[in-house]
Write a structure and sequence with these properties.
Radius of gyration: 21 Å
CATH class of the largest domain: Alpha Beta
Strand content: 5-15%
CATH architecture of the largest domain: 3-Layer(aba) Sandwich
GO molecular function: nicotinate-nucleotide-dimethylbenzimidazole phosphoribosyltransferase activity
Keywords: Cobalamin biosynthesis, Glycosyltransferase, Transferase
Shape: globular
Order of helices and strands: HHEHHEEHEHHHHHEHEHHH
Structural class: alpha/beta
EC number: 2.4.2.21
Function: Catalyzes the synthesis of alpha-ribazole-5'-phosphate from nicotinate mononucleotide (NAMN) and 5,6-dimethylbenzimidazole (DMB).
Family: Belongs to the CobT family.
Helix content: 40-55%
Number of strands: 6
Largest sheet: 6 strands, parallel
Amino acid sequence: MTHWWQAPTRPLDRDAERAALARQDALTKPRGALGRLEALAVRLAAMQGRERPRLEALRIVVFAGDHGVVAEGVSAYPQAVTGEMLRNFVRGGAAISVLARTLDAQLEVIDLGTAVPLEPLAGVLHLGLGAGTANFLAGPALDPEQLAAALDAGRAAVARALADGAQVFIGGEMGIGNTTAASALACALLQRPASDLVGPGTGLDAQGVAHKAAVIERALARHRSAETPLERLRCLGGFEIAALTGAYLACAQAGLPALVDGFICSVAALCARHLNPGCGDWLLYAHRGAEPGHGLVLAALEAEPLLELGLRLGEGSGAALAVPLLRLACALHGGMATFAEAAVSDRAP
């Protein structure tokens, strides 16, 4: 059986890439003087299929869901916080809410399934996949229907972003316990022990980190028979991690650049790459966060993040912070004069 996420991804526009490279070579500056901003502009040109890319319309989607493994005492915060933060997002008080306003970005909030029941919230899309995932020490975190629905939720979010004219997609996440789920999934995908990836998440002390690592090792042992990326996602992932995975795959198939946020989003990107390697062409990596496992995941993705600010917030906040860099890369690439236009002498042949 072939699933939608296995369909081919859109190829980059190599003609636009060559034209952008030629333009960079002609701008009034020494070759390479703008460092990675030059390569970033060229990459966006190949993604957008135009010599001079633009980044005006931005869609940020925050996927939220709870995790059954929180019952094992792996988080410093109660699960009620997930729903409380959903209210904070739509009231405008969260970091990502402020960043979205500042960047003039469209913000969408999706409740995939919280442990504590919520009233209908204006501005939140409630999908109700379950009261959080199951505790993966007792069985798979998601059943097959929940996994398919979460992946589809990511694809549908991308379709809405495209319909609204988005030029770049940012996925964010919210879910108490999701660094545990992401770490477990990363361990399974990378075949690394929990001690290599586990960190404090939202604020565990050293004893808490050791306990979280032990819980993950037990989960890895329990789900050792999950050999495919899809089964590892089902057994160890979360609603929001699966939705992000689906979103990144859908972005690549539709030709929409995706700016990947921190550790949890990067694990979803890693899973997406395992499911369909072609999606890697459409993923840009915003930052290297403080969670210890993030560097290992980025290395496996051969990713060069744009920022390193010690962030560990999530929500898509690190990706939003990188947007001005992308916009400035496009502005410099499109707005600078060439040597010929400015009547400035080029270097000697």
